[in-house]
Design a protein that fits this description.
The chain is α+β, with helices and mostly antiparallel strands. It has one domain. The protein is built from 5 helices and 15 strands. The strands form 4 sheets. Strands 1, 2, 3, 4 and 5 form a 5-stranded antiparallel beta sheet that branches. Strands 6-7-9-10 form a 4-stranded antiparallel beta sheet, with helices on both faces. The longest helix is centred in the first third of the chain and has 30 residues. The radius of gyration is 20 Å and the shape is globular. The N and C termini lie close together (10 Å). Keywords: Signal.
Amino acid sequence: MKKTLLLIVLALLSLPLFSQTKEEEQVLAEAWLLYNSERASWLGTDLFLEKFPEKKENIGGYFSYSADGKHTCIFFDREQEPNVLGALTFDDSFVAEAADVNTTSRKLTPNEKDLYTIRQKAREESVNDTILFKHYNNTSLNFIPVILKNTKKVYVLTGPSVGGVVVFGNDYLIEFDKKNNIKSKKALHKNIIPIEYNSKQEEEITTMHNHQESTGDLITATDICTLMLYGPYANWKQHYVISKNNVSIWDCDKNQLFVMTRKAWDKIAKAEGIKD
């Protein structure tokens, strides 16, 4: 990226305050929900298997959720009506040493039962609907159930099963009714966008990907979640999402979003001789 464009972008991101649309606020709110869930799952899995390796064979699955400022990852057994094998709860710092670890066997709470049910139904749907859901080598689908303000959703992200790559796209949103029946499903990105990185690279870099018109003119909650999860490991400085009418700029250091019009972006880029 040419120096002038980079300086302009850095100046915009350094502003102490700037207004955001309701759509941008909603995307950010959902991105944090997804991030907190996935972060709890990442750390919870590592910690649970490290502390209780003897329970591994009994694990039927796991999921995470947030409540009252805490983020809990629970592991359940293989019974048809599953029981909780263990629950690990983190605060916003996600410090493993500060986690509350509880291995008392118990039944799922009503909220956990709903989360479990919609997650299981989403998993089944991803297997049965081979037209919508795509499966790629060296990746796996991650299912994130979310219940918030009387809405029930499962986001499906594609995660890499090999190191040195961040995967955007091939993500989905499944919405449920009050009785946990699927009422809608869609692909958020209709393509898969792998970006390689070198974790040993000391110099911070800037990356980008393009949105097809069907994905929309704004960075998605799944994009932001992926950036917050992998950005620190990839040593990324910023990431740009280029769409038809907007350019979304994510600052990986500050976890901050700035959106500018595509017209303004193209004007600056043209002056600098940059092609995206």
